[in-house]
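DATA SHEET
Item: assembly model
Revision: 1
Owner: S.N.
Input lines:
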Amino acid sequence: MMNNDNKSELLLNVKGLRASIEGKEILKGIDLEVRPGEVHAIMGPNGSGKSTFSEVLAGDPAFEVLGGTAFLDGVNLLELSPENRSHEGLFLSFQYPVEIPGVSMANFMKAAINAKRKYFGQDPFNAAEFLKLMKEKRAIVELDSKLASRAVNEGFSGGEKKRNEIFQMAMLEPKLSILDETDSGLDIDALRIVAEGVNKLHTPHNATIVITHYQRLLDYIKPDFVHVLYKGRIVRTGGPELALELEERGYDWIKNEIDAAEQS
Amino acid sequence: MNQYSKLYSENVDSLGRRPEALEAFEARVPQLDRVFEPETYAVNLRRLKLPVDAALSFKCAVPAVSASPALIVNDIFQPARRLPDGVTLMSLRAAAELHPELIPASLRKREEITAESALNDLLWTDGALIRIGRGIHLARPLQLVNILSAPMDLLTFRRIVIVAEPDSDASLLICDHTQDSERNYLVNELIEVRVEQGARFSLDRVEESSPLTVRRSEMHVSLDSDAKFKSASAVLFCGDSDSKIHVDLLAPGAEAEINGMVIASGEEAPKFHTFIVHHGEHTSSNQTFKFVADGQSNCVFDGLIKVMQSARFTEAYQSNHNLLASSEARMHAEPALEIYCDDVKCSHGATTGQLDPAALFYMRSRGIPEDEAKQMLMEAFLADVINSVSIESLRDRLRHLVERRFSALGSGHDSCANCVALNP
Ligand SMILES: Nc1ncnc2c1ncn2[C@@H]1O[C@H](COP(=O)(O)OP(=O)(O)OP(=O)(O)O)[C@@H](O)[C@H]1O
Ligand SMILES: [Mg+2]
């Protein structure tokens, strides 16, 4: 599984990625390689740039890319619109899913699915095919059918929003999913259901990056690698034991090391 | 003597117009827009039948509204083939000549007569009289279609008088279409609606006129005790379109809901002015107006709520929300409250902004192309006004028309080529 020298097998290959918002540099050179079948966890103190990294990969026009490269399965992500990045297999579960009053979940998902089908030269799904797909995927995260008939995220509880993100992931069958603090806001049962959903969707051909602050999620979704992001860089990479160490010791020891290195 | 006074004196006055009308008009001439340059337009004073086949080629785009709409082609009335019992829907000109007792006195007080409506007093040639008989409940809406279609530039003066008699319940759809987008049209329209005690009347409007059409529309509505009036106006295509809506809530229990939605692009200039005046105690009004302003359009909403000293326990709300879809579009919003009484609940709010970039990115990140995502957000923005339309089949139709309207924006189509009603 972890064949380190076969570069062509990389599902995600990010090198030296730098990005800013409103003139402020947030990402200062990120390197990350993800292979099919892997699960990576990204941890790090608040404000270190984890969400920024995922949003820049997804193509949020609010950020300016200053340098570096990012390839998904050989496709240059930085050249693509956000919608085409999605079609090419990138999925971001948002830390703060957006409420869209007036747009029903069904219409939203139908537009997304049919845009993807069009991108690959397939006919759009008809209403029956689409409903069948919705029903099947809803079951994976036990999403209430009532939520699926409401406006996108409008009035959803924090946990319902997160569950809805994983439902969308199930619908879109991405190659690479980035789950940004999907565990926050979930109660104990919901966490298990959502994590099991993510595991069900995992195959040897796709990969997952989970951004989290807590070991609890990693008990369910077992990472192959754990990275620490600090001040816009990945400053430490290890196995699952790194997460346990962080849980115990916090970030100060890493921060001190990095800050001291910066001073000298 | 100016051009209009001359037109008036040449006009055969069989409609009981009094010399005061001329005086009132002449006193207000300086307020008139430059758009009323008379040289450019013909006025059909001799009531010639223009060689147009509007009635033949017109097909209603709103299914199951009315089996048979009445038409006003330019300013000539063509009756509906069938009418429900208890309903009068006839030429106003014919009514003025044959049954003047059916036409109530004007609702406008002296100080409320504008230059435009004074001109309409002078020169109106036809229009419609609609009466819903006492206690009559209509299962289906009535429909009146205004069509502009002439082989020359044309100036028309039309007038619509509506009386909803006590305890009646009816709805009316008025559609405005231009059939020939090459011509200059100027429409001066006056509508007066009386909703009598305990009656319910709803008036929905759809405008799809060409860029060269100038509309000056003025509507006066009076509500007696326990009368309910509901109106939703949708402007999908227009030229220079100016609508004034004046509502007097006269007596306890009167309720008015006045909504509007506008989609403007190119150089369209849609304007709404509302004057909602509460006279009676325990009256309520609610207004929601939404504009999507694209291109170089120039949009206006002024809304005034006035609560008179006599109108204790009034509830009056107004909201105006606007989306600027392009950097060159302009929106002028001026909500105002004048309250002369304590013990009222009133609020107004206006916002003008862009599409939510976070929502747009969220949709795109799921694979929805940018144009489609924008369109979905704009439709969602208008959804509450569409949902307030009384006529169910019109709601569905409007959703469809709005969708088409926005796709036309994306591909830069011109207005009337998309007018579904005329190109079914
Ligand atoms: N729109 C913005 N305008 C200005 N600064 C921003 C903006 N978005 C993010 N930032 C800044 O970028 C930095 C990184 O933020 P980011 O959200 O990526 O952190 P994070 O690692 O995800 O934190 P958390 O663990 O709290 O979610 C922060 O200092 C934040 O204030
Ligand atoms: Mg974050």
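QC remark: The longest strand of chain B covers residues 154-164.
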